[in-house]
Amino acid sequence: MKINELVNEIYMTNEEKQLLEMFDKPMPLGSFPEREQIIINNLIRKSIISKVQHNGMIMVIRNDN
Q: How far apart are alpha carbons 6 and 40 in whole angstroms?
C-alpha cells in the first residue's frame, strides 16, 4: 500500500507542483537540471511520481491518482 493511498492530501511545495505539471508522458531523468532532479527525487519519495528503467535509461513518470 502506498502512502498516498493512506493520506488524502500530500503536502507539496510550489516548486514540486510546478514541476509535476510537466509530467504528461515518461521523461528521462537525465534531461533535467540538477536542481529539478532533487525535486523529482523528493516527489519519488512521496510516491507522486515513479522512476522506471526503459531501454537502459531511467525514466520518470507521474503516478495516476
A: 21
Return d(Cα 36, Cα 42) in angstroms, integer. 10
50 pLDDT above the threshold of 60: yes
Residue 38 grid coordinates: 532533487
Spell 43-56 as b/e; 16+ CB within 10 A means b: beebebbeeeeeee
Looking up cell 513518470 gives: 61
Return the DSSP state at 22.
Answer: T
**Cell 516548486 identifies what position?**
15
Distance from C-alpha of 52 to C-alpha of 8, rounded to nearest angstrom: 25
Give the separation between CA 16 and CA 56, rounded to whole angstroms.
Answer: 26
- Which has the minimum average pLDDT: 7-11, 13-17, 57-61? 7-11
